[in-house]
Design goal:
Chain lengths: 721, 721
Amino acid sequence: MASTTSTTAPGAEGVLQFQPLQSTVDSTFWMELANNKLEKYRLSEEPCTLQGYYTPARSSAVSAPLQLTSTSLALDGDAPSAAPGGPQPYIAWGSLYNVNTLDRFKSFDRERIMAKASEEIWCDIRSGAACANPALLNRFVVYTFADLKRYSFYYWFAFPALVPPAPMRAAQIGSLDAALGADLAAAVVQASESWRGACTDATPAPAWLVWLPGTNRSSEITASPLTDWAALQERDGEVILAFCDPCNLPSNPGWPLRNLLLLAAAQWGSRAVRVVCAREKAGRLDPTFSLMVDAVLPEVPAAWPAAADHPPSQEVEDPAAVPAMAVPKTLGWEVNARGRMGPRCVDLGPTMDPTQLATQAVDLNLKLMRWRVLPELNTEMLAATKCLLLGSGTLGCAVARTLQGWGFRHITMVDNGKVSYSNPVRQSLFEFEDCKNGGRPKAEAAAERLKAIFPGVKAAGEQLHIPMPGHNVSPQEEGAVMRDVARLEELVLEHDAVFMLMDTRESRWLPTVLCAHHEKIGINCALGFDGYVVMRHGHGLSKSTDDVAEGVGEASCSSAPRLGCYFCNDVVAPIDSTRDRTLDQQCTVTRPGLAPIAGALAVELLVTLLHHPQGDKAAADTASSEASPESPLGLVPHQIRGSIAHLNQLLIHGPAFKQCTACSPQVVQEWRTDSQRLVMRACNEPKYLEDLTGLTAMHTEVDSAMEAWGDEDENSDEDDF
Amino acid sequence: MASTTSTTAPGAEGVLQFQPLQSTVDSTFWMELANNKLEKYRLSEEPCTLQGYYTPARSSAVSAPLQLTSTSLALDGDAPSAAPGGPQPYIAWGSLYNVNTLDRFKSFDRERIMAKASEEIWCDIRSGAACANPALLNRFVVYTFADLKRYSFYYWFAFPALVPPAPMRAAQIGSLDAALGADLAAAVVQASESWRGACTDATPAPAWLVWLPGTNRSSEITASPLTDWAALQERDGEVILAFCDPCNLPSNPGWPLRNLLLLAAAQWGSRAVRVVCAREKAGRLDPTFSLMVDAVLPEVPAAWPAAADHPPSQEVEDPAAVPAMAVPKTLGWEVNARGRMGPRCVDLGPTMDPTQLATQAVDLNLKLMRWRVLPELNTEMLAATKCLLLGSGTLGCAVARTLQGWGFRHITMVDNGKVSYSNPVRQSLFEFEDCKNGGRPKAEAAAERLKAIFPGVKAAGEQLHIPMPGHNVSPQEEGAVMRDVARLEELVLEHDAVFMLMDTRESRWLPTVLCAHHEKIGINCALGFDGYVVMRHGHGLSKSTDDVAEGVGEASCSSAPRLGCYFCNDVVAPIDSTRDRTLDQQCTVTRPGLAPIAGALAVELLVTLLHHPQGDKAAADTASSEASPESPLGLVPHQIRGSIAHLNQLLIHGPAFKQCTACSPQVVQEWRTDSQRLVMRACNEPKYLEDLTGLTAMHTEVDSAMEAWGDEDENSDEDDF
């Protein structure tokens, strides 16, 4: 183990200086961290394990950095991908401390995490674990703060190096081939590469031994793991330490050698050791670029205590009385871009694809809800739920905007009208420009605006007339009307929830029938002058005949009674309400605050319903259900009726009506039998739906009964909501 | 009265044919009608009086039309303006029947209005009123339907002409100078113009008499009113009838002559009369263009009954038994553009200035409210009320949009931030484009969007930082902070209502102080995760010292106790709540439906308050005030607290707190004494506001009291709303 081929002049022995590792963090790492923060860590500040990647230096111009990429956090999954053009990188294990606020970052106790890492390294040295797995010597720590509102990331790395009791010195430093001669150097390199090639571990060990035969040179040069140290000492020859050296400098080794030499001094008792700093050129270890260092090591007392066992220094009354090595001093905080001790910050906002940024930002608020207040929130489910909005006026716009706020990603707007000049101040998806030249089609303009608000939404707009009972259809029009019916049915089928947001009562009839038939969630919303009703329709009628027969309020046995639809309170069929309307009846004469309130409540009702274990079969919550609603989001009422004049909200519920002209089994059955006949007769024959559902018979009975009672109850006019 | 200068060949006597009048309706008339419909008529279909304007024919190429302009409806105001280049026009009086629906228009009983007009004309002839005021002969009727959603106007004019028992015939028709010779014709013209020039009536009579001296030609030709007919008969000479003739044809008189000749036949018993059809060239009556007609009139029985006295024809059993003149048959419905009998329609939408169209359309919905449901609505007052919105985030956007819906026209947005990618889906005035390149300043982007929605709004955006108690201000920053304070005070002064819509509690402190000091309406709005509070601050403290001293809950004697502000429930001064916030605390983690609901309620609260007779001094309504709220718009509570999870709304009220750190007299007085000292100490000295208001003293007392009670009440953490 003597320095046999020393070329150093006597007295040239200097303090060995190591080039610090440098971190390089890929933006994909930050994206992954942001994602984990939102999805997994949330408010937790518990450290988590990282993989950093590094290679030997591959260019005399630059050192190899320690790199973090998107896979650095994915520890239960993929192996790290090889660096381009090179073999499998070496892994350094790190601990990530991600804190919640910038203030926490600024006041972070970095000495604590450094002490923890150095303690672990020291334990691994003393226990022999680091011999078996030298990667343990390259532990690093990083603490971070991810400002996800701005996509700025604050961070500070440390590569802990335990400081020995006295400096390590170099008796000699030079290139490997200068130190050993070209042949021997080539043989050392060859042996190292063979050993590494034969290594079956997922990741190669970053340090190893090379044995040079002694006087009997017949033996071959071999490479072997650090654990062979003791055995190799028995053999005639020289044992050289080798490690993967990320440093590019011609007269300094890289940072990883520090802890490795400490291991040699502490574990093996070495006072002098020859080291190969293995570096690469063109994908192979290179004897000219690699260094040979003859290191002179201080004595490291075996009694150096693990930090945990040692009393903290401030409690020691007389520092001079404590042995010099008692506290394992540690170095390694990385300097920042200005070369000073301090954290770094990377601002990814400006470099990200804006659409991508928007998508992540939009999800942010929703995911944040899961951290504290609403862990049950299923944002993926909302994003996948397809919503059909029938009507793109005041209510349609309000509903679409709230859906976007909740992260719904599939929104289809339907309307038959064009944007008029009075619309934009109340219909929040339109602007003045949309009104010019006769006005753009509303559905199309609304869908386009949804995309302008958030490019990640799948929004479509469709101009469609919805056939209405009581609105006569001539034989010539029948073909066109039935095409509209077919298209509406397609649309209902393609979506999960159907919002009825039109300005007439009767236009809600066909969608109500279709929702009942196709078992889609129906949400209905209607405005008066200063009051609103927001309701969900009862669940649809499944296609098994039994269900149809039983699909009325009273029938279900196991679950709650099926709830009513918008028409279930009516005892007459819907008629044409648009004929002969005066101007104030044609325009939406409602207090302007009504539509945003009702639209928002309609969406909140859907979101709450979607989180209810029974979905649209959930029983109607009432104000007295407050104690423990089954949905994590709160009450799932049947109907919410409110007034801005009285500033109240009532929760009302009612079962499905046996003779309902829209959702009753008779109507749905007739749709299934002959949809064209149903629609045409409903449009053209005022009494048809009442006959079909048995309302006519009921009226006759009631009339007979009333005759006995006189006409006291004549004034039963009801508002349209 | 014999036809002395007849040049007609015998037997050439033909039926006299009259050119119908044509209507021309200025678009300003339709605008005025639209305005009247909204402001005055509303749902009324009562007829109203119109002025139509016409002139003599002024070109041989075209007839002069009957014109309606914006002044046609303004009967209590301006005299009609003269047609360009001509003298005062003649007036025809009309009746306007504006109906409420297109169906009513289509089925309008036009025979009825025609019969009514002809009856009036006949009465005026028989009574002599038409002699005194010949304009009464030119009565017309028009019935209209104004489709104000589309700016389409449907209309049909009639110029009633009573049909005599037998046709009127022309013994002779020719130009005036051909009939009389140039000199005499010139003299007739001269006399007519002199008479007209001397006429002191507001509008000239459209018919007059010209007296030609008989055998003794020494007398001068004179013109005089129709009432001179009998007197002129006594004199030697010839009496000629003259009228303003809008017709341009060389051998036909215009429509106004029909009723005039009927008057001559019925009132004066004339069987033949010479008529000057007075027409103009170059601004003067022209003898070549004007016609002379020798008319032969049928006998008109004096017994021709007024229509009102006559039984309707259908009740007559044998029509042949009724005298021919019994039913005054009337002609005069105008043909439409296609030359058919039928109404006309003008669509002004495409030709109007879009900004003007938008302004009228936006007002439409509001004005419609006054027709039926809310006659007390004062839209002008709302348009004039200036609103300052502090905060342009989720709440700021929601409030601004609802303000626009209510017709507020002055909206100033204030914010200190920039639009970030997560904003547009929840902040309804922003789009994706606003987020790029670091984001546009929010206030500016919001104001611009308000104008894009409705160009008629006066919207401004201002980037301003609002100094906050507990947020330290260094001596170097003091100048800038005080400039912000001064600017905020200016803004508060310039507005009538101040909305506090920020995302921190303490940023509402200074605006609360300023509202109390300047007696501005303060509306406060704050969101939790699924709950909201919307409140109005108590009225401000007037600058008289008394008021300041008494401006607390208990003190007022005459009116209700002054209500509290946002800080009146606090027993500690506001502190910096932004330090060390985690990501979910920095972002608005609220259910997306919350902001539209709370924003809408905040605006509705302001609108209701503004309509309350006591304004911001109105006592707080509670749910039990429901019976008869003093505001026509409903309850004016102090605070509305609601939850989307529980779907309830509570009306809460509380008086101003004597020791309030924001609205109490001590604080307002200190502002008035030294605003800089107040702000700087509030920012830099945590206990200052508590000392100032006496809270510190109160705490000391309470602490002493608590010691006796133990610490049972420790967990008094309260949510931030």
